[in-house]
Amino acid sequence: MDKHSLLIDTSIRLFHEKGFHGTPTSLIAKEAGVANGTLFQYFPSKENLIVEAYISIKEEMANELKINKESNANIIDQMKDVFTSSLTWALAHPLKFDFLQQFYNSPYHHKLKEQTIKKYDQTHLDLIQEAIEQGAIRSLPANLVYALISSHTYGLYQYLRVASHDQRKKVIDTGFELLMKMLT
Amino acid sequence: MDKHSLLIDTSIRLFHEKGFHGTPTSLIAKEAGVANGTLFQYFPSKENLIVEAYISIKEEMANELKINKESNANIIDQMKDVFTSSLTWALAHPLKFDFLQQFYNSPYHHKLKEQTIKKYDQTHLDLIQEAIEQGAIRSLPANLVYALISSHTYGLYQYLRVASHDQRKKVIDTGFELLMKMLT
DNA sequence: ATATTGATTGACTAATCAGTCATAAAAGTA
DNA sequence: TACTTTTATGACTGATTAGTCAATCAATAT
Description:
Two copies of one chain form a homodimer.
Chain A: H1 3-18, H2 25-32, H3 36-42, H4 46-69, H5 75-92, H6 94-104, H7 107-111, H8 114-133, H9 142-162, H10 168-183
Helix pairs in contact in A: 1-2, 1-4, 1-6, 2-3, 4-5, 4-6, 5-8, 5-9, 8-9, 9-10
The structure holds a DNA duplex (30 and 30 nucleotides).
């Protein structure tokens, strides 16, 4: 594993444990097994490291979801695929998923360019827009539907994180049925 | 306004702007118009101040919702009342509502006693449990329903915070209808 | 008026941290 | 090997911070 990725992974873990400002760069370097100064060869500043960590997770997630999304033709099946993949990914990478929330609710998020934020939403918004136009889900503002689906996913994640693992698949299916009952 | 409340209100604003560790206690004291040392007479440590700020918001919210909840007999009306009041309160106090999210996604939240967290959930869980027993909403684990309602509320909040204000009442009503469509 | 009490002050300290930089090690090249 | 380039190191620094504490102030009581 290259030092860039190693530093980002270590950062995500430590930021989650101790918060952004509660984690000194010296500790990140130490836990990643590199010298203090090395960190600043890969990232010009701590803030840059935090933002890069966020972007790397968003990229990773976007790549995972893209693969699972191409095959289906039916738009509801596509939505179910995205929904299921998102939840499965989140439950498989709780540290990273929690980091996204932590970042989103921090002052660093406001420093991102509008464009960067939109970049990762656009694919989902397009899918929702198409589903509305096809009449597959009820006619509401796409942004509202996106907010409702995202938070529904997040709510299920919160529940499943502490619930017993063997019911996960069933609860995810039920969760999607509930979502569709609401949106159609 | 007494200094205790003044310091908490100032903290909430600054923590939201600059994050927990990004806000020095000296700045909180300065903006609250008291001396550095005075802050530590009201709060033994910065961590204590952060936790007290969280608890004060939870208390305030609990008190607001309690008042609006007593009158109705019909359980669906009660739920609608809690839902509407929660959203209205959140939209009227976005700084405080955002602080709750920020706190929840920070390492400080893990330091709270289990009991303290449950304290503010219990009333809502009881209401949900009763609604399930009465058959007013479908039979699902109360914790799951709670997670779904909470996140649904949060999703609507996120949408309404940026949407135009004059549609708020209508969107909140629609939001509750959607929620009930899902849960019945 | 004087004394007593408790709240308030802000200069101070010991510790911590982000970022630098001169030096060294490693890798690449001929 | 001998030389060059790239990467890594960690001691160091200037700046910042949480928390302290001796001194001051305000309010009330005697």
